[in-house]
Design brief:
alpha/beta, six-stranded parallel sheet, 221 residues, single chain, 50% helix
Length: 221
Amino acid sequence: MFRNWSWRVRSESQHRKQRDECHALAMKSAKQKPISPDWLSHCVADVVDEDTIIVSHVISNMESVYEQISRAKPGTFLTCPGGSINWALGAALGAKVGAPDKTVVSLMTDGGFVWGCPVASLWSATAYNAPFLSVIYNNQAYGAIKLLVNTMVGGKLSDKMAFDVSVHLTPPPDYAGIARACSAYGRTVEDPADIIPALKEGLAQVRRGKAAVLDFRLERG
């Protein structure tokens, strides 16, 4: 019994230390431009409640989500262990259809938004009264693929080469404009001070029955 209690005390202490370090990392980057993924994830955690369903597939920035967003209730954190880049939009729509009384927030990459058939997904969210909030971690690149290519060539790709081999998404499309074209709310955010107000407005739109897309511009991956 004593050994079990001692292990629990040590584990709780280590967990609190880890959480404090993650919190400090987010706060340190609160004014960073371009927006830090740690600060963005911290802000998401700040505005959602314990019943909100988080659908996460941010791939190259997944560490920031796991470190900054804590979920305690079963069924409130859904993620894709595979490499299906198009997963996040459809999964969020399915989560909302399956749990219509819950607020659904989908975290995704910009590449994932493109590959997730946003016109079809957002139109369906409107047509079937299944609104959800899409939060785009926009690093203007296929970051995970770029990392693999860098490894293969044994160095860092130049911006021109990254564009030529199609791992840079520059200039980025107007994702907020795509949302508005589908009768959803859309907003592009570049200032870290605007993250919390944008998230609150996006959630307010969803709770009023309107799908929403927030395009947060991060440092290019």
